Every structure is written in structure tokens, then in C-alpha cells.
Amino acid sequence: MTAPLLKVENLRIELTTRAGVAPVIDDLSFELGAGESISFVGESGCGKSMTALGIMGLLPDKIGRIASGSIAFNGEELSTAPEARMRQIRGNDISMIFQEPMTSLNPVYTVGEQIAEVLRAHQNLSKPAAWAKAIELLDAVRIPNAQRRVNDYPFQMSGGQRQRVMIAIALACEPKILIADEPTTALDVTVQAQIFDLLNDLKRQTGTAIIMITHDMGAVAEMAERMVVMYAGRNAEQGPVEQIIDHPRHPYSRGLISCVPHIMATLTEERLPLTEVAGIVPSLREFGKNQCLFASRCTMVSQKCLDARPPEVAFDGGQMSACWHAEEV
Hints:
It contains 13 helices and twelve strands. By secondary structure, it is of the alpha/beta class. Strand 4 and strand 5 form a beta hairpin. The radius of gyration is 20 Å and the shape is globular.
């Protein structure tokens, strides 16, 4: 059996807050194979982006730390790797597309200069060679007239074009893993579809594995082969996308799916009323409690949900659910 490209085991990430130390990621485990697409899905505040920052070694300085667990990339442990080694890996082997390109791109440098900088830092290319490669990358992410647009500044581009520049930067060194953190935030649905098509095409051409972070189950259905449903820093459910959408085993997964009308219409062959998941994600002060943290929002809550943390229950096909009522959902 082929070893996974990325293997995360029992990961715990802690943040130091005014109220004390809180586990923002609590005992999270998952694997990613070469060329595979996996998605982290859940509401804001569930720990999706924090997991990505932990993998990249970009946790908030002085207040964030990996308390325990393992992050193994190609067999190399990253959780204890020195910063010098992480600088070699970031942008080269593992790249990340951040949520908002306008704040990620430097407004005083042209997009060509920003792409070329990555190539010079990691590939030791000369300035002319890096500039030529930057034009090739802009063309690869389907920015028209790349020869001219390489001289543009970020403010001269639309939101969709800036996102394509971020993808070009992330793919400049042909990384083995691409982390896309809400890659279509604030983009209209037409541009979103174009970005998804672009990422899928680039994945097929380069063999890059993709971790997509989103709150949108519709995007998961379009992009990923497997998903990890996260809630309050924990793994609520994970497994093949089609299997979870057809047969969710966690009430939270079921709630997220029922919020997407076109998915529900496909499953039921009728138009159902739009539903919502009542309540909000608990505060960091609640994270780490020995109980089901979804209990206050769940329609299936029982006393044992309040008394102990639910174990992960395995089902056929690689699906796992951390719910006391997984068999009933």
C-alpha cells in the first residue's frame, strides 16, 4: 500500500488567550494521498484555516503552538521541524492560496515581480528566466494577454484575476500539495466556477494534491474526493464525498448538506424548504470539553452527549463519524 503524502495524527493546536490556553484543534487525524483532493468543511471558527497554518508552520507567533500530535510530509515530521527547514518547504513543496488576494498581494509591486520573487527564492532562477516563467504561469492560469498583464499592479486587476495570480504564485514551484483557503471568497458564481475548473485542470496536469478549505458543501461536491467535516476544532465526520452527501452520519454534516438547495434537490428529486443549523459555534472557552460540543445545537441530543466526548465510529467505505447517534442519523 502506498504511503500517504501527508499524514496528520492526533494533532492538537493551542492558542494562548486572555482567558487561558484553548485547544483550537483537538485530536485531529487525516491522510492525503499524492494527487488526491480533500476538503475541510465547516462554519467559520471550526479550525479549518488553523489546521492549514499548522501544516505550513505559520501559527501566530508566541500565542500559537502545536501541543501534541504529528504532521508527517513524505515521512518527514513537520511539527518539530526548524524554521529554516520550513522556509524551504513553504512555497516549494507545500503552497497555500490565502483567503483574500488583495491583502495577500503586495500593492507596490507588479504581479510579475511577485511571481518572479518566488521563483528566484526557491528555484535560483535568474531575473530574466524568472520573468519569462512568470508570464508562462499567468498564461497557464488563463489571464488574457499575459505578456502585458505581467506588468500590472494588483489594483489594476479584478477579484477573479487577482485570485488567478495567487494560484500562479502557489503553483510556481510545482508543489506536491496546494492548500486553497476559501479560494472563491467574495467572487461571483461565474468566476467561482472558473476558478474550480482551473484548479481541477491544473491538478490533472501537474498531479498536485489539493486541500480545499470551505464552508460550502456545494464547492466540496465540485472539487473534492474526500472531506473532513470539522466542528469546534474536532473531526465530526470524514470519508468519501459522495458517501457523506448521500448518507451523512453526523447531525452537523446533515445540517450543512440541507443548507444547499441544489444538493437536496438532487438527493430527494423534489424542492424542499431551505433549512438552517440553529445556534452558533461555541467560543474558544468551550473547546476541549469532555462532551459533544455540537450538543447545544443538535436535535438528537441525549444525556450521554453531555456526559462524554463521542468516539469515532467507522463505517464501510472509509467513512467515520464522531457521534453517539451515528447509527441512527
